[in-house]
Amino acid sequence: MNKQQLIAAFADKFAGQTGTVYASPGRINLIGEHTDYNGGFVFPGAVQQGIMAVIRPNGTDTVRALSLDLNEYGEWSVNDPNGPKETCLRFVYGVARELIERGVDVHGFDTVFAGDVPLGAGMSSSAALESCFAFGLNEQFGGSISKWDMVLAGQATEHKYIGCNCGIMDQFASVFGQAGKLMRLDCRSREFEYFPFDPKGYRLVLVNSCVKHELAGSPYNDRRRSCENVTKAIQALHPDRKIETLRDCTWEDLEAVNATCSAEDIQRATFVLGEKDRVLAVCDALVKGDYEEVGRQMFRTHEGLSKEYEVSCEELDFLNDIAKECGVTGSRIMGGGFGGCTINLVKDELYDAFTKRAVEAFEAKYGHKPIIIDVVIGDGSRRID
Ligand code: GLA
């Protein structure tokens, strides 16, 4: 779907009218998985795929919204305390409510939206949708909220209207992304820096398994709860220290609560502490241009996500094994888990052999082809003039 087609669909739906077009991307994440809600570091970048929406205030208090991809249409009042039931419309509803809470004078509007970021691939199609409306509605209704407020409005939409207690990585990457640059974000202080990413001789490629085993909400929230349980147990032993998340905890702290926390919670926290170390190792390696080390850490993250955090699945472990067999530099599951893609750091000369083998071997075993997506780091939320 390009901009012209979206504008045509809007005119078709809303009596020949036209509106302003906004876009917001999905994201990749080089390393730092499930660290955002633990106050740690993440390394995301926006991709070129995303969500596009035409938005036009309609002078009433009614929102009229059409999702072209899912063919879902709904109308609701901006003051409606319940909102629509269809998930894709609830994102729009939730973002509008969150903007109002942040002082933006949102009234009724007409909108048509569509996207090319694959759903359930771990590339944050939902954050793309939230950020697109946070950016677009702020501008259309004369708001002056900051980019961080847009990020937080998107995250609050997930928490309050969708039921997923996500961190801030996805919305951050979608709003703040810049072409050609990854971003290293400290999720505790919210300080971040742009990191030009141009690994000479290597490519980043996603292999989308196109499987989604469980709904993102509950197992994701369970993982988060485990981290909070362990944090609380460590806090109780150290009332004198400022301990807010696992970011503030050491390996010794974890050892000290080994007997009091459940084995499952300890296992989850072990992953998070290990991931904290891996992110720092990757930062060092990137500064030195040592991509072999970046790749080794990616494989370790996969191992941790699979065995300790238990958010992988058979198909993703299979893709990871293929990557190893092909001599790929680094490979791991990307995003929340339970399906979706692996992200792979591949030497140029191995790219063709690896992608061919991944597609063929996966299809032979699982009966459908995975989708190869070359990563191009793109821009964040914007108006398309
Ligand atoms: C999902 C969440 C993010 C983050 C990742 C895992 O994408 O939305 O906040 O926790 O999972 O790193």
For the termini, the CA-CA separation is 16 Å
Helical amount: 40-55%
Low-confidence spans: pLDDT under 50, at least 5 residues? none
Query: What's the story with the biggest beta sheet?
Result: 6 strands, mixed
- Helix and strand run: HEEEEEHEHHHEEEHHHHHEEHEE
> Based on the structure given, which CATH architecture of the largest domain is correct?
2-Layer Sandwich
- In total, the number of strands is 13
Describe this structure in words.
The chain has 385 residues and is α+β, with helices and mostly antiparallel strands. It folds into 2 domains: 3-198 and 379-384, Ribosomal Protein S5, domain 2 (2-Layer Sandwich); 202-375, 2-Layer Sandwich (Alpha-Beta Plaits). The protein is 43% helix and 23% strand. It has 11 helices and 13 strands. It has helices spanning 3-13, 87-101, 125-140, 147-162, 169-176, 217-237, 251-256, 263-288, 291-308, 314-325, 351-366, and strands at 20-29, 41-42, 44-57, 62-67, 72-77, 109-115, 181-186, 192-196, 202-212, 330-333, 339-347, 371-374, 382-384. Strands 5-4-6-3-1-13 form a 6-stranded mixed sheet, sandwiched between helices. Strand 7 (181-186) and strand 8 form a beta hairpin. Helix 3 packs across helix 4, helix 3 packs across helix 5 and helix 10 packs antiparallel against helix 11. The longest helix is centred in the last third of the chain and has 26 residues, at 263-288. The mean pLDDT is 96. Bound molecules: alpha-D-galactopyranose. Alpha-D-galactopyranose is lined by residues 33-34, 36-37, 124, 166-167, 169-170, 335-336.
